[in-house]
Amino acid sequence: MKKIIYIASCLLLATITSCDEVKLDILNYGSINGKVLDGETYLPLNGVLVTTTPPSIALLTDAEGKFTIPKLKEGEVAVNVKKKDYLSTSLSAAIYNEEITQLDILILKDDKNIGNINVYDPVPGNGALDQSLGFTLKWKVEGKKVGTELTYSIYIFESNSTVQKLVGEDISALEVTVGGLNNSTTYFWYVVAKYEGSKIAFSPTWSFKTIGK
Predict the structure, then answer these.
(1) Are 203 and 139 in contact (CB under 8 A)?
(2) Which residue, of 109, 128, 153, is where some domain finishes?
(3) Using DSSP, how many helices (H) and how many strands (E) does the chain show?
(4) Number of structural domains, the chain?
(5) What's the rounded Cα separation, in Å, for the pair 124 and 128?
(6) Within a domain: 17
(7) Is 12 contained in some domain?
(8) Measured between alpha carbons, how far is residue 49 from residues 41, 45, 82, 99 in Å?
(9) Helix, strand, or coil here: 5?
(10) Do 45 and 38 form a contact (C-beta atoms < 8 A)?
(11) Is there a single domain that holds both residue 129 and residue 35?
């Protein structure tokens, strides 16, 4: 009798051990609360089509320009916005588990029939750490029609500050050098693309942090 009980106990232990080794893929989800604004007047825009990449939902902004995307897998997602007579744009957003990401998107009227301009791929990469106190910011642009000459204005500001510094104005190069930065400080920066003096696209707002003392 004792022998039978011992064998049964071993079988139970083997079953428990086997269960412990099973790996489960746990999916985490967050959400986005956003608003779409006119890039010149900063007034809210209703009826803007909002989609995502990877695809998850398609919806329209309300009378206050607001939209909510309730369930997105944790990670990076592109939020795409489109409205008649406006330049379409796409912004990347970071999604965190059980957190709400706030996202304000500025779009501009396509008065000059430019089409969709996308400013992307920042150098240093978004969220980069240990950057020197003086270096060159770079970016890429796609969607520009052949023969269309664009210029760029670049703005930078410190974390927890509303004061924006213009570090490059109406330049044609896809880079600008910044200097005199503070140690151990998080900076945010973005690029405004222009055509014949008119704003036609905004980049996302990117960030980096400088080295410590």
Answers:
(1) yes
(2) 109
(3) 1, 16
(4) 2
(5) 6
(6) no
(7) no
(8) 19, 10, 5, 23
(9) helix
(10) yes
(11) no
What whole-number distance in Å separates Cα of residue 104 and Cα of residue 33? 9
Model pLDDT, residue 146: 66
Per-residue model confidence (pLDDT) at position 170 = 95
Which residue in 201, 164, 170 sits closest to 87, CA to CA? 201
Residues with pLDDT less than 70, the chain: 1-25, 146
Q: Do residues 128 and 211 both lie within one domain?
A: yes
Let me know whether 103 and 116 are in one domain.
no
Mean pLDDT, the chain, rounded, equals: 84
Residues 77, 131: one domain? Answer: no
Distance of CA 156 to the CA centre of its chain: 16
Q: How far apart are CA 155 and CA 190, in angstroms?
A: 6
Which of 94, 109, 124 is the endpoint of a domain? 109
Task: Pick left, alpha or beta for residue 137 (phi over 0 → left; psi -120 to 50 → alpha; otherwise beta).
Answer: beta
Q: Residue 208: give the domain boundaries.
A: 111-213
Q: With respect to residue 74, please indicate whether it lies within any of the assigned structural domains.
A: yes
Q: Is residue 71 part of a domain?
A: yes
Q: How many CB atoms lie within 10 A of CB 154?
A: 20
Q: Residue 144: what pLDDT? A: 74
Q: What is the CATH number of the domain that holds 188?
A: 2.60.40.10
How many whole angstroms separate alpha carbon 24 and alpha carbon 208? 35
Which pLDDT does position 150 carry in this prediction?
A: 93
- At 25 the pLDDT is 60
Global pTM value: 0.63
Contacts of 79 (CB under 8 A, 6+ apart): 32, 34, 50, 51, 52, 69, 90, 91, 92, 93, 103, 105
